[in-house]
Amino acid sequence: MMTALVIRKLAAMPRLWRLVAVLGGLLIALALPWLIYPPIAMDIIAWALFAVALDLLLGFTGLLSFGHAAFWGSAAYTAGTIAIKTGAPFPVAIAGAAVVAMVLAVPIALLAVRRSGIYFAMVTLAFAQLVYYVANQWRSLTGGENGLQGIPKNLFGLDLSDPFYFYYAGLPLALLGLWIAWRVVHSPFGRVLVAIRENPARSRSLGYPVDRYKVMVFVISAGLSGLAGGLYAISHGFASLQEVYWTTSGKVVIMTVLGGIGTLWGSTIGAALIVQVEDYVATSGIHLGPLNITGPGLITGLIFVVVVLLFRRGVWGTIAHLLHRRRTVPDAEPHLSCTTAPPLETGTVVEHEPAAAPKQ
């Protein structure tokens, strides 16, 4: 009884939970290269930002994109090219890569938002494959199948060849991207996105340009994906066709769903889980009698199936839902992310059904 009472009181303090979660996340991020191999820690940070960027579309706007590898990969090539050709500090190269990803996203978004559901996903996938074809054929710039090699880690003369030191040099960029995503979600703009996810027709009837909002969040998501892709390429010193291949888009979707769509921070959990599992299987393998599993695809697929069957809202989404249920009873059934559509603006008139007369 006492434990349940304590949990109920803590659940009633969302601000405290947010502060604890933020501080805990920062401590984990700072300690990560001390706990695991630093390059793997940097991969987790980059993929986490990539998954959070996708969650802006999938979880908060209701748009499933299978083409985000185009922005991740194009940014990886752009950051590598800027770093090699100009010798600019790596933050400048990554910033330029994010801008290129946003510019690339504009025409794709203008065409893709005309469709919804699986048709939107297929349009984004088609454009991603087009980017893959261009990257494969433009060998003078991308290196083709050989990739872009020898990307330097320049930062005003500092020696960042050690992955341990580069992790702390690149971490502020990832934290900046995460803060931008958080600020988008917790702004009036983010509230409109949630309303569009719940009921696009009503949002349009209230005067909100739904397609314009979709284009804007698509471009923001692409920019954050580009930030993550540039950081990933600089960290590895290499950019390959794998970065723009369609499996990269599928991988980040799995990360987002595993963590919990519409939870933002759940994507970081999904990214950490997938990256760690892939590293373990690739290096050690799993031996079950005569069966030797050395490819990560089977294991990650099994984890995905188990989580989807047992935790419908994902890992973090399930935790958030349990805490949500211990607070006041909601007026409406929450989304899978436990976020409901708030009023679009103060003073908006919302029509309600008249109450039914009691039976005599």
From TrEMBL:
Region (Disordered): 334-360
Main location: membrane
InterPro entries attached to this UniProt entry: ABC_transp_permease (IPR001851), LivM-like (IPR043428)
KW Membrane (keyword) present: yes
Claim: Membrane is one of the keywords in the record: yes
Keyword line: Cell membrane, Membrane, Transmembrane, Transmembrane helix
Annotated membrane topology: Multi-pass membrane protein
Domain of life from the UniProt record: Bacteria
Transmembrane segments: 16-37, 44-70, 90-111, 118-135, 164-182, 213-234, 254-277, 289-311
Compartments it resides in: Cell membrane
One Pfam short name: BPD_transp_2
Name of protein: Branched-chain amino acid ABC transporter permease
